[in-house]
Amino acid sequence: MTNGKIKCGIIGSGNIGTDLMYKLLRSDKLELTCMVGIDTNSKGLALAREHGLKTFDNGIDGYLEKPEIADILFEATSAKAHAANAPILKELGKKAVDLTPAAVGPFMVPAVSLELENIEDLDNVNMVTCGGQATVPIVKAISDVVGVKYAEIVATIASKSAGPGTRQNIDEFTETTAKALQDVGGAKESKALIILNPAEPPILMRNTIYAELEEYNEEIHEQIMESLEKMKATVQGYVKGYRFKTDPVINDGVVNVAVEVEGNGDFLPKYAGNLDIITSAALKTGEVIAESLLAKGVVQ
C-alpha cells in the first residue's frame, strides 16, 4: 500500500489488459504497478513501459520474482491460463479479479453482487463475460420482481473487437454466461449465444435478452419496467455507454430487452463496448476490494 492506495497489477498484455491499464491509471483507490505478458514485443507491454510500469515478459514466472509489487492481480489472459495461475496467486495470498471465463471464483457483476460484505475475504472473483456483464443485471432486475422460468441472451459484437483470447474462449463464454444468468440473474433455466459480426463499419455491442415469466399481470408489468430502469441507471454508474437500444417490451408474460454498449474509447475504438464493459466492471470490483481492505486494515 502506498499513498492510501492498494498496489495492483495486470496479467495479460492484450486488448483487454491494455484497456484496463488506462482505467486503473486513473483510479484513486488502486495503484497500478506492473503488467505481465509473454511477448516482449507486445504493444501492451510497450505502452505499460511508457507509463512507467514494471513489465514482465515471461508470464507469471516474472511476477513471482517480485510478488510484493502487487496485492491485487487482474487476470486478462484466457480461461486456461487463469486456471493455472489461480492456485499460485492464492498460495501467495493475493487477490485475483478474473476477466476470463474460467469461473474459478464466484461470479461478480457489480450492479448486482457488490453488496457482499465479505468481499475482502474472497481470494478470487470472476467477472463472468462481457455478455454476462451486459445481460445478467437485466435478468436480475426482472427476477427481483417475479420468477423467471427461462432466460436467453444473444450477445453480438464487432468481429474486430474479438481478439485471440475471446475467440479461444467461445465455449467457455456460452457456458459461463448461461450459468451466471441462473446463479446471479435468478433464472431457472438459461441459454447464451455470441455472434461475431464482420460488418463494416464495426457495430456497437448489442445484447438481446429474452425472459419468460412465471406469472404476469399489469402490476407486475409496471414493477418490471421500473426495476429495469433502476438497473440501467446502476450499470451506467460505472459503464457510461450502457443503454437500452429500444424501450423494453413485455407481451404475454415474455420480456424482450435490447441493450447497447458503447465503449469509453480509453485504448480501443468506441465500438468495442464488449471489452469496455468488462474492464469497467473489473475496475469497479477492484476498487471496492481495495476500499474494503483499506477500511478494515487488511493489507497484504
Describe this structure in words.
With 300 residues, this protein is an alpha/beta fold. Helices cover 39% and strands 24% of the residues. Helix 1 (15-25) crosses helix 10 (273-296), helix 6 (130-143) packs parallel to helix 8 and helix 6 runs antiparallel to helix 9 (218-236). 49% of the residues are buried.
Strand order of the largest sheet: 3-2-1-4-5-6
Return the average pLDDT rounded to an integer.
Answer: 94
Portion of residues in beta strands equals 15-25%
Q: Please work out how many helical segments DSSP would assign.
A: 10
Q: For the record, give the distance between the C-alpha atoms at the N and C termini, rounded to a whole number.
A: 8 Å
Sheet bearing the most strands, described?
6 strands, parallel
Number of domains: 2
What Rg, in angstroms, do the CA atoms define?
19 Å
CATH topology of the largest domain: Rossmann fold
The structure class reads alpha/beta
CATH superfamily of the largest domain: NAD(P)-binding Rossmann-like Domain
Per the principal axes of the C-alpha atoms, what is the gross shape? globular
Q: What's the CATH class of the largest domain, please?
A: Alpha Beta
Unreliable residue stretches: none
Series of secondary-structure elements, N-terminal to C-terminal: EHEHEHEHEHEHEHHEEHEEEH
Family: Belongs to the acetaldehyde dehydrogenase family.
GO molecular function, one term: acetaldehyde dehydrogenase (acetylating) activity
InterPro entries: Acetaldehyde_dehydrogenase, Acetylaldehyde_DH_C, NAD(P)-bd_dom_sf, Semialdehyde_DH_NAD-bd
Active site: 130
